[in-house]
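Budget justification, computational time. The allocation requested in the original proposal was used primarily to generate structure tokens for proteins on the priority list. As evidence of use, we reproduce two of the resulting records. The first is shown immediately below.
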Amino acid sequence: MNYLALLVFSIVWLGIVYGINRLLAGKPLKTNKFKATLYIVTMAALGLLGEVCFDVAYNAGFGHPLWRYQLFPIHHAYTSVYSLYLWGSVGLYIYWLHDTLRKKRLSSILIRSVIFSLDAILFELGVNGSYKLIFHHYLFYYLPSDLWHLTSVQTLPLYLLAGFITVEVMEQEKTHPRFAMAGSIALALCLVGGGILTNR
């Protein structure tokens, strides 16, 4: 693995996340560093936990996982160390997007959850597709072929549920943001550390 190329790839995608939100907002984005960090670490923790829980359940129900991580896999390849970056990027995207939606008076839980689910699929298509184009293999491989193994429409129910959970968690975190940040960091570290230590 060319780590420098992976770093450049990751930075470019952060630029894309910013650019999309800049276009949606129609003006330069303002960023509260603490709130943005809270979104990033919360989404990183929720994303890792959600990937493990959902794919374990899917595997139990259908006899095989829905996806397999190819890059830095942990927890039976249900998730990855790299997922910290992926879901953290989603958290930053959501932070800017939610601010834009509030200003446009489109901040209901249902609207934000539906947008989250659709954006998550598009994000996976973009990131996994560009990763495969550049590095010649999948970042994560979906067993269904409905969207070229880059993602799958079968994830829509998961992302809709994840959208509701994420919006609710973010709303609840407003009352105790520092406690929420500490909890999210601890959860993410436990998930990643446990996966690395067990080498699975």
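The second record produced under the same allocation is shown here.
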Amino acid sequence: MSGWRTHRAAQIPALCDGVEVRLAGRVRGIEGRFELVDGSGACPVVVHPASQPAWRADDLVRVIGTVRAGALDVREVVVVARPTRPVAVDPEHARLAHPALRDALSGVARARAALRAYFASQDFLEVETGPF
């Protein structure tokens, strides 16, 4: 968990009402409803008219809200980034979102982390070469 984020999207439906949470993820719009999607899954989001103009489907956002009936009742939204083209029709996004590829990339990241940890334990110093 990052220092700012308190929960993952998949945890929201299991939390008790009234719990304050901080999440980050992509907004997904489905038939007039919104979900917040992160690496763990998705959770339904209650959108209030005052906060709706601040975000739209496909935005990357940070939200603060309260759990109500298994959904996230959003109090504060910060749009971190907006895509330059619709995510749903972006073939690169669709390829990277595939679960098998995500698992493979996670394995590569774990292997790199293990290598870095090993060399750090042996007092090696990681440096980047190239133009500065």
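A brief technical remark on that second record: The first strand starts at residue 20 and ends at 30.
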